[in-house]
Amino acid sequence: MLTANQKLKKRDFYLNKLIAFQDTEPVKVITGIRRCGKSSLMKLMILHLRESGIPDEQIIAMNFESMEFRSMDVKAFYDYVVSRKPADKKVYLFFDEVQRIAEWQDAINSFRVDFPCDIYITGSNAYLLSSEFATYLSGRYVEIKMLPLSFKEFIDFHGYTIAEHKSPSGKKTKKISDSEGNIFDTEELFEAYLKFGGMPGIADVGLEQDKAYTLLDGVYSTVVMRDILEREKRRGQRKITDADLLRKIIMFLADNIGSNTSVTSIGNTLASEGLLDNNRKTKPAVQTVQAYVGALLESYIFYEAKRYDIKGREYLRTLGKYYIVDVGLRNYLLGFRDIDTGHILENIVYFELLRRGYDTAIGKIGNVEVDFVATTADEKIYYQVTQTMASEQTKERELRPLMQIRDNYEKVILTMDRGLTTSIDGVKVVNVIEWLLD
Fold this sequence. Notes:
By secondary structure, the protein is α/β, with parallel strands linked by helices.
């Protein structure tokens, strides 16, 4: 349970989603990579309940990472809650990393039918929402997909404030100040975001490389050990037994964010470049690589963006792209490399689009690609992402795919450049930092 002296940074974007579903039937399921803030979001929701007048006796919180609950089976879990719930009052149930309890879904379903309750659970692996669980609750859950900090959240978490300044010519620009009143350009903070990423815990250790990378090492190790290598304990899951192969695939995907990738090409590249263990005589089977990549997607360390045929209006099965959930993790794995700025920008934009609620795919039109097709129920936007539009060659390369699209949906190029024209042949040109802060 949250103690009185704990201070939490607000994540209003996610908290407001939880509040919107408060006191409704669906189980609220918070998913995302480890250490992205799920436990803190639960604590923020508990604070909201207290501030709304809900007494502590109606709130039960359990973190199954704690030794206090580690040895529980599902019956002990159920009995623990029943013995502590108040009689004839609604109870608010918060279960952190609940998938560590075997058959936990039986208890969750029993709570729902046995007494008035409002249930919130977290999980660091997509297995939590497997077809088995979805069937068990018959769709009676809502998923809150949590990601590491956006750039705007990064600024807030690290103690900076955004303010708008007007130049003598009347042009409005954003400046960032610290607690001592020092003023920084947005590019200075964005450079730190590109280097350290958005894991909330880095705000506690500070923007120092050694400390930040130690924290990221802990995140990476926990994801690999608990959520992937322990995966074999779950029924129906292919065993992930080769830790070295898993690491090689992680490094490959991290090094190739934003590149068209297939499971077959991963195995071929690992074999052709001599990246496999000396004891392995042949490249890994496609099914093996598929299982390992699937485990990485399940653990939320990588996300897959499908390809979408814009003319044919259908998703394609081949050559999607993979993006890493946090660029700080990538830099920890590969080292920070300025030459990759274009792909890193693309990675950041992809996850920002997910945060903003867009279904996001890679667009294909003829023989060229649009970086992202972002859609909602009533909106579609095409995005190109490039570090610079300074040369005519780059400008032509970025515009060409967008010019081939014949519909009237919005088309945008995001770039690090400033001071460019705001529109070219109906295509908006927007500074990516300003877009992230919008």
